[in-house]
Design brief:
This protein is of the alpha/beta class. It has two domains: 138 residues, Aspartate/ornithine carbamoyltransferase (Rossmann fold, 3-Layer(aba) Sandwich), CATH 3.40.50; 156 residues, Rossmann fold, CATH 3.40.50. Helix 2 links the parallel strand 1 and strand 2. Its EC number is 2.1.3.3.
């Protein structure tokens, strides 16, 4: 994974198809214990949004690599008092070996990457969530033995998850269908990029019909209907998004061996029913665990651990 050493991961589009496959292979090897890597480095976590899985999985992954973690809560740093991002970035660059950022604007993430020499990782923005999709693809690969040719159907808001799933699936040769209400489609530029990556070999479909998306799919995926920062819209979205709920009826239109994924946290009874979340098709808890393994592979690759 030497080609990734020192690079940023701001978007899944920063990776080639072969680099993504290599990352997933390394994650599987780390999870199984086939390989062990050590890296005495320092990871900074700069999170402006709440986090459970991302924060804990990055922390445990770095500790297991033999490194250290500094939690840079913006509320107790000078960022909260208006220090320019450029200044903060240049200072952190002198202290840390790698930086994972969870923030609202993709542009802020790019500013940090521009003003640092160390690798910068997108730990979630309003535009993309690439680290989650690394774990998603690892989970799908574990379940089916391969990725190419399988179909993932996503239901709900065309948010950062929908954006990153389109890119990730296109890179590994999976079909991806996004079912959203009118006016909530994924980012048009990212959709165009995903279609360019797919190059007509696989399907990148955006539809308003959840049944069309679910038909014969191998993976059914959903996320909350209102993301962080959109809480005031949550109640108004419920009737609009109700037809996109991941429930037993929708699951019945998928392949008989289909799996169910959710990036969490879940609002049971809204975007997914309790029955489906706890049912035999659910791989949600394996998916959550795989955040740690996928991010460990990512950290090791960007840092050049051996």
């Amino acid at each position: 994974m030497e080609p990734l050493k020192g690079r940023d991961l701001l978007s899944l589009a920063d990776l080639s198809a072969s680099e993504l496959q290599d990352l997933l292979q390394r994650a599987a090897q780390l999870k199984s214990g086939e390989i062990k890597l050590r890296c005495n480095k320092v990871l900074g976590l700069l999170f402006s949004k709440a986090s459970t899985r991302t924060r804990v999985s990055f922390t445990v992954a770095m500790y297991q690599l033999g490194g250290q973690v500094i939690d840079l809560n913006p509320n107790v740093t000078q960022v909260s008092r208006g220090e320019p991002l450029e200044d903060t970035a240049r200072v952190l660059d002198r202290y840390l070996d790698i930086l994972a950022i969870r923030t609202f604007k993709q542009a802020d993430l790019k500013t940090y990457a521009e003003f640092t020499q160390i690798p910068v990782i997108n730990a979630l923005t309003d535009e993309e969530h690439p680290c989650q999709v690394l774990a998603d693809l690892l989970t799908i690969q574990e379940c089916f033995g391969s990725l190419a040719g399988h179909t993932l159907a996503y239901f709900g808001d065309g948010n950062n998850m929908a954006n990153s799933l389109m890119l990730g699936c296109a890179l590994v040769g999976m079909n991806v269908r996004i079912a959203t209400p009118e006016g909530y489609a994924p980012d048009a530029e990212i959709m165009a990029r995903a279609k360019a990556i797919a190059a007509g070999k696989t399907e990148v479909l955006v539809t308003r019909d959840p049944l069309e998306a679910a038909k014969g799919a191998n993976v059914l995926y959903t996320d909350v209907w209102a993301s962080m920062g959109q809480e005031s819209e949550a109640d108004n979205r419920i009737p609009l998004f109700q037809p996109y709920q991941l429930n037993t009826e929708l699951l019945g239109h998928a392949d008989k061996d289909a799996i169910v994924l959710h990036c969490l946290p879940a609002h049971r009874g809204e975007e997914i029913t309790h029955e489906v979340m706890e049912g035999s098709h659910s791989r949600i808890w394996d998916q959550a665990e795989n955040r740690m393994h996928a991010q460990k592979a990512l950290l090791a690759s960007l840092l050049g651990c051996d």
